[in-house]
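Reminder: ligand-aware prediction takes two inputs, not one.
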Amino acid sequence: MLVQSVRKLKFILRLTQEIQLYFFWVDSFPLPPSMPMDETQNSDEILLFIEDDQDPTRPEDSSLPAPWKILIIDDDPDVHTATMYALTELIIRGRGLEYQHAYSTQEAKQVLLYSKDIAVILLDVVMDMDDAGLHLVNFIRNTLAMSEVRIVLRTGQAGYAPEMEAIRDFDINDYKSKTELTQAKLLTAITSAVRAYEHIRAASDSNLALEMVIRASADLMACVEFKDFAEITLATMNDLFDLHAEGFVCIQHAPREANTPNTSDALGLWLIACTEQFAPQQGCVLSALEDKRIQLLVQKAVFEKRSQFENRHTVLIFTNASGQLVAMYLACDFHARMLDKHILELFSRNVVACLDKIVLSSRMHQLAFFDPLTGLANRFHLLKQLGNTLNSDKKTDSALALIDVDHFSETNDALGHQFGDLLLSAIGRRIKSYFGEACTIARVGNDIFALLGHEDLVSPTLILSLFFQPFSADKEQIQLSATVGLVRLSHYTLGASEALKDANIALKRAKMQLRSGFSYFTREMGVEIRERVRMMHALRAAFDEQRLFVVYQPQIQISSGQVIGLEALLRWKNKEGEFVPPNDFIPIAEYSGLIINIGEWVLRSACFELKQLERRGFEPMRMAVNVSQAQFNHPLFFQTLERALADSRIPASQLELEITESIAMNEPQVLIETLAQIKALGVRVSIDDFGTGFSSLSQLQKLSIDKLKIDRAFIRDISDPKDEGSIAKMIVQLSQSLQLEVIAEGVETEQQALALQGFGCDYAQGFLYAKPMKNADLEIWLRERSST
Ligand code: C2E
Ligand code: MG
Ligand code: MG
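Here is what comes back for the chain with magnesium ion:
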């Protein structure tokens, strides 16, 4: 113990002697008191000036960099004093020293637990225990896992030197016996320990920074929206360089998003992400910023495409190869803090790479959710918004409207598609200017716009009033009208796509009404349409399961009562055993396209039935088959016809196709060509339900048809054969003048048959003669008839 005390005393004396010597040396060559000694000058030859009369009340200069923290652990207070004394005014890399003190192992542990950033620990090996220092080292390195702090062990006696393994394993910087530790050596030891600490810190700081950059880059890469991208960039910048600065991020030429501001800015800049101070300006254009100095600095940076560093103002510019630019304003002196240029460079490169990706994904987002012509939302975006509305409180007072521009396709055809596009853009702009941000406006079809918002706004009166004034396109003024289908969402229980479908149903209904120009969706409409869909599925199943069949109704020569032909009529008995009327299911088959396959099957069945009758020895007769417009216009119809004839081997002249008046009056050129082809095969054509459509006589003349079939509505009216005004009679006369055959359908009474005969109509079909029959019944009927 005594030896120890003596050694300590010697150590203190050595330090104080040297200090006195320094006084002497400095007196001879005075240095300016404020000039700090750099650690580069730190050697045994170069002396340190100590200012005894340093004013302790002198205010600290906050702009000075933080001092290095030195923890002195020694049970002898004199050692603390002497150490501080020896190191006073030491400046290492521009930073002074700050001391913390512990006088026992316990105290040291307390200090270590609560102090951060200690650079060097000067640790006495022998304190309360002989190896207290080494225990403490173990505690520092292993328990507290403080690997950066540098440790200089001091001991009063060499015998207490730690093992070499302990020095290596505990990462101890220096081990000095107090007697050999002169002031110069202490300075050297502290300086090299601080520098080592600085290097370790720098390495671990850049590791941390790298980790942060990597993490931020991953987050940035995952961003799909500019806003998230900007927020992460701003926050990372602050964290990375420990800036704690207020600021914002501006982007140029904002993609069209729901929150894009309307007001324009000269450079097209708007604030997309802000810290707290600038939060009220979030979403505004840069020119709306109150602080004009900041505004000008950002504009300058953007204009010059160069980052700007001013006193307490920094603007960083990130720009990619395609010219997309992001400007970040930070209210701080960034250049002074740019300690790690490499990290900034790396981060910037990552930001730009992510910017490329976000520009691309924003373009994809734009294409996926916005209509390129009008810039309005598209169908998908509308469905998304609609889904949000239906899942929120807004649902209770929201409505959806579909706005269909009347006769737009005619305008398009007449004036060209380019003009049509201009017109659609003008309509989109007008809807947007009126309903603006209050509603979601979308273009969901060629000439169909959608409006989603509060039901007071989404009202048919307001919407239709937008069409009171003409629209201008290409310097032309075009007056347009529209039809609106609406759905109130308040009690809506289904999803977004159903709501859109229902608005469409209401729109179709409004178009049919041709009166008010709008219609609200009602439950009944929905039931009706859903019933049709149900029927479509059932019809498809019936066809697949071969539950459809064909019946045949005879056609008679009135004068002789002879059977001249048959009409094939389709029948469907549903699973409940009820017959579904063809007038109900044929339109659904036409609408769904099922008619193509079903129609072919009817045609082939009829042809094979005719062949069968011929084989059974019945007199040759004709077979009439109904053909829908969809079948008739189908590109493969002619081949289907040829194949049916070839496969059944019936003469073409025995087959008659019944087409409707609407087919006969459609697209004259195509029709004339198709009819000519059919005629060339030798197949006959008749016009069914004649008199119910709007046949043009001139067109009728041009078509190579064989027969008119008077609709049964005109047969019902026949009462008096002398009735000159009868439409049936007029049709008969017309057929005579066009040299066409004529047949009456729906003949139920002898009187009607006689009247028709009187008009000059030779043929009839109807319940008077026979109802449509299945093939087995038909054969019995035909046999009975031929035997009478
Ligand atoms: P349609 O071609 O005008 O067929 C004549 C319709 O009048 C048939 O109705 C027939 O049962 C009915 N009818 C015949 N005689 C009388 C009568 O004396 N009194 C009354 N009240 N009705 C009579 P159906 O079978 O219900 O067919 C209705 C319509 O469905 C057909 O009118 C036709 O346009 C269409 N249709 C039927 N089968 C087919 C088919 O295979 N293909 C296509 N495309 N349409 C078909
Ligand atoms: Mg028919
Ligand atoms: Mg008919």
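Residues 688-689, 709, 745 surround magnesium ion (ligand 3) (CB under 6 Å). The longest helix spans residues 183-222. We will return to this case in the review session.
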